[in-house]
Design brief:
The chain has 251 residues and is an alpha/beta fold. The chain has a single domain, classed as Rossmann fold (3-Layer(aba) Sandwich), CATH 3.40.50. The protein is built from ten helices and eight strands. An eight-stranded mixed beta sheet has the order 3-2-1-4-5-6-7-8, with helices on both faces. The longest helix is centred in the C-terminal third of the chain and has 19 residues. The radius of gyration is 18 Å and the shape is globular. The protein starts with a helix and ends in a 17-residue tail after the last strand. It holds the Pfam family ThiF. It comes from Sphingomonas alba. This is HesA/MoeB/ThiF family protein.
Amino acid sequence: MSLSDAELERYARQIVLPKFGGVGQQKLKAASIAVIGAGGIGSGAVPALAAAGIGKLTIIDDDVVDRSNLQRQPIFRDDQVGGEKAMLAARFAMALNPHVEAVARERRIDAGNASELLEGHDLVLDGSDNFATRLAVSDACVGLGIPLVSAAAVQLQGQVGLFRGAPCYRCFVGDAFDSEDCDNCAELGVLGALPLTVGSFAALMAIRAIAGMGEDSGKLHLLDADQLSWRAIPLPADPGCRACGVPPQSG
Ligand SMILES: [Zn+2]
């Protein structure tokens, strides 16, 4: 996939990187990423992915902009309160970079439609705000063989991980949270810059994965915005995981 003169100029500062180069830029241009949730994490991830030159973005969100979102979702403006987030985020991406094709899917993703919505993408970046959605997305990604960057932020804590098959997000969380929405920002609060930082970090992981810059899976990156520190913990695969584990022998 060749790059035009305008693209070579736009992406010059990353094409010059020895570990990235023109080959890395062409991989980004050829890539299709689904971003789930145009919230705080999406507000960090979408500008970073669009600016870097990801060729196709699908933005999945069924919500509208609320005034209380603007404290952490700066891709939306005060005069867009009440507007559809997926559509506004897709427009934001294409206004930022006309070489990006961004599509809005104004749907709530769940276990019933996740595979259909995510099929055909090269990577999924999940910034949704509840465990049930994140688990449904993870199960679909394991089934479809799509790498998943799963990101979350609440109160003063953020977490980001890249999952490729096993271990999967369900190995880490377990099965207890499928029906619970237990990390809701509306109840617990979140400091504005935190999800943006986590969303940008998730975009960095996605770009590294697409460009083939190194293997980052199998670790969970934790940001503590209270102590202001990052740390990475290894994630063991759960052999009994019902998404990525070995299915029990029947008979
Ligand atoms: Zn698993």
